[in-house]
Amino acid sequence: MSAMSKKVLVVCGLAMAFSGYAMASYTGTSATSQQSAAMSTAETVINVNTADVKQLTAVKGIGLKLAQSIIEYRKEHGPFAALEDLSKVKGISQQFVEQHKADLRI
């Protein structure tokens, strides 16, 4: 392998390592914890009455704004009595609740 080829490989390796580090820094988590969170998300059931924004956004289809709306609704109306009550939050349909019953609980 020529010296030039070795330099190119080193530069590419550094660029790949830095991009992973930059992404982890941007999101505030390490690449390993991101992978762990992604793997455990499907296995974790989220309690909608106690979950914080980070836990709620782990559910597919719940972004930051919707998570904040769920928490705000809880503050104003108290805990959800039934999972179906999530549909009272603006932006959440009964269909969404049905599709995510396995991921959510009271």
Question: Which tags fit this structure?
Answer:
57% helix, 2 domains, 106 residues, DNA polymerase, domain 1, 5 helices, single chain
Average per-residue pLDDT, rounded, comes to 77
List the domain count as a whole number: 2
Number of strands: 2
Task: List low-pLDDT spans.
Answer: 8-14, 21-25, 34-42
CATH superfamily of the largest domain, by name, is AF1531-like domain
**CATH architectural label of the largest domain:** Orthogonal Bundle
Supply Rg: 20 Å
Strand line-up in the sheet with most strands: 1-2
Q: What characterizes the major β-sheet? A: 2 strands, parallel
The CATH topology of the largest domain turns out to be DNA polymerase, domain 1
Shape: elongated
- Spell the H/E element sequence: HHEHHHE
Considering DSSP H and I runs of 4 or more, what fraction of the residues is helical? 55-70%
Instruction: Please report which band the strand proportion falls in: under 5%, 5-15%, 15-25%, 25-35%, 35-45% or over 45%.
Output: under 5%
Helix count?
5
- Structural class based on helices, strands and sheet pairing: mainly alpha
CATH uppermost class of the largest domain: Mainly Alpha
**Cα end-to-end separation:** 61 Å
